[in-house]
Amino acid sequence: MNSEESAQTLETLKNLRKTTNLPSSQLCLQVIKSIPCNTRGRSIPKKQVVALEKSRMETEKEKERADEAEREKEQLAEKFAATTEEYKKLEDRQRVNEDRYEALKSQVDKLMLLQNPSQNK
């Protein structure tokens, strides 16, 4: 393969990488019909490379899920804080209303006694 062909192949790989979600190993298999991976002078079998790439993609997906779960957790914490705040406000209102009710009830009792003094005896 001469340098022009290599440059064209590399450009094809880069364009495919941008436009598809396929792992690098799959792209290499499609374009150059092999996986150019050398470790310590030995070729890695295609199955290993594909398995490694699959594992990497699964790890990325798990990270995305974990990030999404973290965002959801933060949203739920905010909602919980807002709900707790609202609950406290409602409890305070209920206490105020109970106090008002007791005050009104005692006023009504006093008025009833004033209107009907015979019930007092």
What strand order characterises the main sheet? 1-2
Biggest beta-sheet profile: 2 strands, antiparallel
Q: What order do the helices and strands follow?
A: HHEEHH
Category by helix and strand content:
mainly alpha
* Helix proportion: over 70%
Q: How many E strands?
A: 2
First and last CA, distance? 118 Å
Which quaternary structure do these chains form? Answer: single chain
Query: Would you identify the regions where 5 or more consecutive residues have pLDDT less than 50?
Result: none
Radius of gyration (Å):
37 Å
Number of helices: 4
Q: Which strand-content bin applies to the residues?
A: under 5%
Shape: rod-shaped
Arithmetic mean of pLDDT: 84
Provide structural commentary.
- The protein is mainly α and 121 residues long.
- The chain has a domain at 37-120.
- 83% of the residues lie in helices and 3% in strands.
- The protein contains 4 helices and 2 strands, in the order ααββαα.
- The protein has helices at 3-19, 24-32, 46-115, 117-120; strands at residues 38-39, 42-43.
- A two-stranded antiparallel sheet has the order 1-2.
- Strand 1 (38-39) and strand 2 (42-43) form a beta hairpin.
- Helix 1 (3-19) crosses helix 2 (24-32).
- The longest helix is centred in the middle third of the chain and has 70 residues, at 46-115.
- The chain is rod-shaped and about 120 Å long.
- The N and C termini lie far apart (118 Å).
- The model has no long low-confidence stretch (mean pLDDT 84).
